[in-house]
């Protein structure tokens, strides 16, 4: 039963006869079995959610999602309900409105600071930098209430209304930016100092300003680090619930994470809405994961200090 | 470029420093009713059918006054209100689910009284009996109006369910429960104990009927300790009625079941229990959200919570939500006044979602037998006690529910639990 | 070490005179680059943290400052009289703080164990990339979604929850995993382990790949078994990466909130409360600004060892590089 193609493959590895391959496989079969079992265990919960999200509501309550494979009856109604009947579509937009500026702002502000820490010498540079490293792990809870009060007063001072900052997304943008900055500066500075010194010195000799060096040499050479941080931060904010609970005040600005927690407590556990909502929430991170896997993993690896 | 930058930098630092200095000194109130902005925001915890019902009232308000409303629903009502207060962005009007919180917020200076709104408290209170106006009055100042009332002394069952009969006394109910536990394929009781307030309601009914209304009020205002033997007695009676043998899914299952899911165990197409003890609002929620096929009077009905001690009678445990204002302007005043009117009450009760404590709302305004019956129960009650856990200050209400969850699961812990709770109660009542 | 040629990132003490020199040589140019970040961090992170510490020793009015200094009263109440936070009346102790310790033991051990197993096994097969992707994907998902996914898995109804379907299939009574005080913590921890193992696996697997293949081959030809190779060669070289992920997990545990909020809201009977959840309840549910602040300060204190570890690690790395 050996096809030509297989014969060829075997021919390429002359020392490995069919029998030794079979023996080798069997010898390692415990490894294969263990891996397949583990992969199965890891997939089942997510698959369960995905299948549930496409099942009609009465089916979800009366039979397990695993029976859907033999008794297929799928519907998009849950998604329709959750998107149009439960504000999930506007929450999707809100999540993006929160996450995108909350990624770009620290990226911009943090990379500037990181540049100063790596390529400009100034007094107390190392002390300030180490203090920022120390702030990286400060629990955000230790800052919530004072920040809210500061926003109120700053809003009143700048515009005359207390809600100028907290009434819209400004508050959460600033909060996420501040919470991300120490880590962002730390990460980017560690990358910036690995850039070739000669290149930067040469530009200095040619009379380039710091701003020019930053913009036309350091930033273009640092795309991988910027991308890693950007992806990490975007997902962090997209997935965040706690900060949004505190800083997003009005229900028409709720991101998806809050919306889902509300679904959860309104009518007991309504799996048809919850599963569809949760899957919509997961869709963006999953997309990012599969599209930008390398940067994604790097970003998370780097994020291990946060 | 650098100089301009430095200037901007200086300005920002200055602004921030001033803001923080202002914060440290504490905000100031700018008294007096301001002109409204044309829109009033209203926050409450109602979603689904309850929200739709309230929306009808708001729509009528807009039609009559031209003032728009922005309704916001937050299931986590308190955290939303508190974080918004801290940020200087409170909702203009909120429907507060616990009177204990009204006093709390009023004492912190967060609420606007009726007088400050330019309304006449006497005139507004004229439509409500003292039992209700007491809830909105803090140290002599009136801070709002009771939006809706409900009876919490109600046992739900299905008349179509031949195994169940209505009972008059605790002994009858206990023997019915014991019979069902052995003879019926499904359990006598459903409990939505994941939401611990369903347990506090159980306790309150038992306690008010065993220790009496006076002791009840003393207990929940901190005048007698929770270590009083009457408390333990009521808890033991509860455990006899509600345990692994009598509750669907056992106590563990009940602790994993929320309030609405608990209703489903009795009134879904596929019931796993015979009876459910919760407020009058169960009817509305069942019809709208759990099982639209049930028929009031035929497959869903209720009767008053049984008498336990003849001498204590049948005090009615009731709950209520309070409309209060956080912002002082003329639009807000108009909305509060409107919500206190018989007209608003009539529109609201006609949805079947609520019972109004407003005397100006007539019985024929109620759309079905279930709510009409509940309204009668509330207006005809001889003695009325307010939902005790809702009166407890601060975290205590929540903690009391947590204690009931623990004790129901393991009745042997009752003494140590009550002792610890009493310590916390002392802290909380002391403020 | 002459001026202008100091290797970037080198942490060295400089004589004070140098500071002025650095400024004269153009150090002031750093200001526009640093200012936005420093202003934000100072006003919205450093000031708030100090503010919170002050709140915790104040009798507050709602979430705002009161005028009365109460000293350590809040801490005393938190650590001795708040049974939801720390209950030492009966053994075993319970409360949010104890739950965090429970997390601190179970979560890292399970993550490391599973991460190590998956990392070691995955390198031995051709479908390594696909396998790793499967284990890693949950890392991308928000804790909110993880909570929903596992609510479904743990549902007490055997027609909904896959775990109870298996239990019922084996003839057992369905278990209310999240409704039982003795199980709920572990049920949540397991869900979080599911979400985090991928990360541990990736870090450890990267470290394993760094180990020279020749050394391993040489060991094999010398007759070493696979177990010997793991125990004698691979495991010792993994100690640093394991330390790194351990710290990551400790930070995770101290801050854990979202998944508890979604899955149990701290219930049943407060049995699954964690410190971050206590903070949220005391501050935003109960409106006790000062008391909540004292919980936040406890979190801060718990995280300080991690902070010190990180600075140390960073300093040593900087000097080496």
- The class by helix and strand makeup of chain A works out as mainly alpha
Low-confidence stretches of chain C: 1-14
Radius of gyration of chain A: 26 Å
**Topology pattern of chain C, helix = H, strand = E:** HHEEHHHHHHHHHHHH
Largest sheet of chain C: 2 strands, antiparallel
Order of helices and strands of chain A: HHHHHHHHHHHHHHHHH
**Helix segment count of chain C?**
14
Number of strands of chain C: 2
Mean pLDDT of chain A: 85
DSSP strand (E) fraction of chain C? under 5%
Tell me the number of strands of chain A: 0
Q: With helices defined by DSSP (H or I, 4 residues minimum), what is the helix count of chain A?
A: 17
The largest interface is: A-C, 109 and 109 residues
Task: Name its key features.
heterotrimer, C: 321 residues, mainly alpha, two-stranded antiparallel ribbon
What would your notes on this structure say?
The complex is a heterotrimer of chains A (306), B (431) and C (321). Chain A is built from 17 helices and no strands. Chain A has helices spanning 4-12, 18-27, 29-53, 57-62, 77-85, 88-119, 125-135, 144-159, 163-166, 170-192, 197-205, 210-221, 223-239, 242-247, 256-266, 271-291, 293-302. Chain A is flat and about 70 Å long. In chain A, 52% of the residues are buried. Chain B is an alpha/beta fold and 431 residues long. Chain B contains 19 helices and 12 strands. In chain B, strand 4 (137-138) and strand 5 form a beta hairpin. In chain B, helix 2 runs antiparallel to helix 15. The N and C termini of chain B lie far apart (56 Å). Mean pLDDT of chain B is 86; it is low at 21-31. Chain C has 321 residues and is mainly alpha-helical. The model of chain C is unreliable at 1-14 (pLDDT under 50). Chain C has helices at 16-24, 30-55, 73-81, 96-122, 128-136, 143-154, 162-169, 181-209, 213-221, 226-237, 239-255, 258-263, 275-285, 289-320; strands spanning 58-61, 64-69. In chain C, strand 1 (58-61) and strand 2 form a beta hairpin. In chain C, strands 1-2 form a two-stranded antiparallel sheet. Chain C is built from 14 helices and 2 strands. Chains in contact: A-B, A-C, B-C. The interface between A and C is large, with 109 and 109 residues.
């Amino acid at each position: 039963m050996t096809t030509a193609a297989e014969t060829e493959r075997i021919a390429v590895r002359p020392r490995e006869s069919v029998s030794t391959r079979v023996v080798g496989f069997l010898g390692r079969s415990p490894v294969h079995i263990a891996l397949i079992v583990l992969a199965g265990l890891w997939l089942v919960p997510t698959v369960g959610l995905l299948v549930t999200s496409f099942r009609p509501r009465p089916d979800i309550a009366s039979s397990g999602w695993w029976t859907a494979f033999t008794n297929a009856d799928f519907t998009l109604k849950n998604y329709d309900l959750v998107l149009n009947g439960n504000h999930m579509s506007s929450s999707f937009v809100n999540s993006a409105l929160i996450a995108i500026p909350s990624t770009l702002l620290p990226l911009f502000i943090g990379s500037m600071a990181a540049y100063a820490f790596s390529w400009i010498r100034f007094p107390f540079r190392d002390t300030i930098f180490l203090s920022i490293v120390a702030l990286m792990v400060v629990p955000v809870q230790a800052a919530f209430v004072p920040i809210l009060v500061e926003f109120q007063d700053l809003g009143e001072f700048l515009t005359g209304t207390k809600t100028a900052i907290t009434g819209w997304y400004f508050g959460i943008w600033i909060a996420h930016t501040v919470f991300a900055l120490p880590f962002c500066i730390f990460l980017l500075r560690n990358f910036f100092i690995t850039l070739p010194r000669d290149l930067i010195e040469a530009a200095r000799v040619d009379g380039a300003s710091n701003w020019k060096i930053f913009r036309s040499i350091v930033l273009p050479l640092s795309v991988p680090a910027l991308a890693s941080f950007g992806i990490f931060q975007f997902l962090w904010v997209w997935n965040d619930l706690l900060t949004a609970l505190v800083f997003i005040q009005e229900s028409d600005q709720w991101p998806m994470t809050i919306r889902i927690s509300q679904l959860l407590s309104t009518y007991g556990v309504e799996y048809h809405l919850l599963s569809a909502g949760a899957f919509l929430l997961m869709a963006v991170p999953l997309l990012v994961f599969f599209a930008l896997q390398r940067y994604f993993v790097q970003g998370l690896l780097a994020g291990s200090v946060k | 470029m650098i100089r301009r930058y430095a200037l901007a930098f200086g300005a920002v630092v200055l602004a921030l420093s001033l803001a923080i200095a202002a914060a440290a000194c504490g905000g100031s109130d700018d008294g007096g009713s301001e002109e409204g902005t044309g829109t009033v925001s209203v926050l409450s915890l109602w979603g689904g059918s309850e929200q739709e019902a309230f929306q009808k009232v708001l729509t009528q308000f807009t039609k009559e006054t031209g003032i728009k409303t922005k309704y916001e629903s937050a299931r986590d009502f308190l955290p939303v209100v508190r974080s918004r207060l801290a940020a200087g962005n409170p909702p203009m009007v909120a429907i507060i689910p616990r009177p204990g919180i009204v006093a709390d917020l009023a004492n912190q200076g967060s609420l606007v009284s009726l007088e400050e709104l330019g309304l006449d408290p006497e005139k507004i209170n004229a439509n409500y009996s003292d039992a209700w106006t007491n809830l909105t009055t803090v140290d002599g100042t009136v801070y709002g109006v009771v939006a809706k009332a409900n009876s919490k002394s109600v046992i739900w069952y299905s008349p179509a369910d031949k195994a169940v009969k209505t009972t008059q006394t605790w002994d009858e109910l206990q023997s019915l429960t014991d019979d069902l536990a052995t003879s019926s394929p499904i359990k006598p009781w459903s409990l939505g104990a994941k939401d611990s307030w369903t347990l506090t309601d159980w306790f309150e009914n038992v306690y008010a009927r065993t220790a009496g209304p006076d002791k009840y009020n003393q207990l929940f205002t901190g005048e007698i300790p929770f270590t009083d033997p009457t408390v333990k007695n009521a808890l033991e009676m509860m455990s006899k009625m509600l345990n692994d043998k009598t509750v669907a899914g056992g106590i563990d299952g009940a602790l994993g079941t929320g309030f609405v899911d608990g209703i489903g165990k009795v009134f879904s197409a596929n019931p796993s229990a015979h009876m459910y003890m919760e407020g009058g609002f169960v009817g509305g929620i069942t019809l709208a959200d759990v099982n639209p096929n049930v028929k009031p009077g035929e497959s869903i009905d209720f009767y008053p919570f049984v008498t336990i001690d003849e001498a204590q009678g049948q005090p009615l445990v009731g709950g209520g939500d309070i409309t209060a204002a956080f912002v002082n302007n003329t639009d807000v005043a108009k909305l509060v006044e409107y919500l206190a009117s018989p007209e608003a009450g009539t529109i609201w009760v006609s949805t079947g979602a609520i019972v109004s404590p407003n005397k100006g709302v007539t019985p024929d305004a109620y759309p079905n037998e279930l709510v009409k019956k509940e309204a009668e129960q509330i207006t005809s009650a001889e003695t009325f006690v307010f939902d005790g856990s809702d009166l407890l200050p601060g975290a205590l209400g929540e903690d009391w529910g947590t204690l009931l969850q623990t004790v129901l699961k393991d009745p042997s812990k009752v003494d140590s639990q009550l002792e610890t709770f009493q310590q916390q109660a002392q802290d909380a009542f002391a403020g | 070490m002459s001026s202008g040629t100091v290797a970037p990132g080198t942490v060295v003490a400089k004589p004070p005179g140098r500071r002025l020199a650095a400024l004269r040589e153009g150090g002031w140019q750093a200001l526009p680059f640093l200012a936005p970040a420093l202003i934000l961090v100072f006003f919205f992170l450093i000031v708030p943290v100090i503010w919170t510490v002050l709140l915790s020793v104040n009798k507050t009015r709602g979430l705002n400052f009161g005028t009365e200094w109460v000293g350590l009263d809040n801490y005393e109440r938190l650590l001795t009289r708040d049974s939801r936070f720390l209950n030492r009346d009966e053994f075993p102790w319970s409360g949010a703080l104890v739950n965090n310790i429970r997390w601190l033991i179970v979560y890292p051990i399970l993550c490391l164990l599973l991460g190590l197993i998956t990392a070691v096994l995955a390198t031995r097969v051709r479908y390594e990339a696909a396998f790793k992707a499967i284990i890693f994907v949950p890392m991308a998902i928000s804790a909110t979604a993880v909570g929903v996914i596992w609510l479904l898995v743990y549902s007490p109804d055997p027609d909904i929850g896959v775990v109870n379907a298996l239990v019922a299939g084996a003839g057992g009574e369905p278990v209310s995993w999240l409704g039982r005080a003795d199980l709920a913590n572990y049920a949540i921890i397991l869900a979080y382990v599911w979400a985090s193992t991928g990360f541990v696996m990736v870090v450890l697997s990267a470290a394993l790949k760094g180990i020279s293949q020749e050394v391993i081959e040489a060991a094999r030809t010398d007759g070493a078994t696979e177990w010997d190779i793991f125990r004698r060669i691979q495991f010792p070289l993994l100690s640093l990466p394991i330390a790194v992920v351990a710290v990551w997990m400790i930070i995770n545990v101290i801050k854990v909130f979202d998944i508890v909020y979604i899955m149990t809201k701290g219930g049943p009977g407060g049995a699954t409360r964690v410190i971050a959840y206590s903070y949220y309840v005391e501050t935003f549910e109960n409106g006790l600004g000062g008391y909540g602040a004292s919980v936040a300060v406890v979190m801060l204190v718990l995280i300080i060892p991690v902070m010190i570890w990180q600075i140390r690690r960073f300093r040593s790395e900087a000097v080496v590089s």
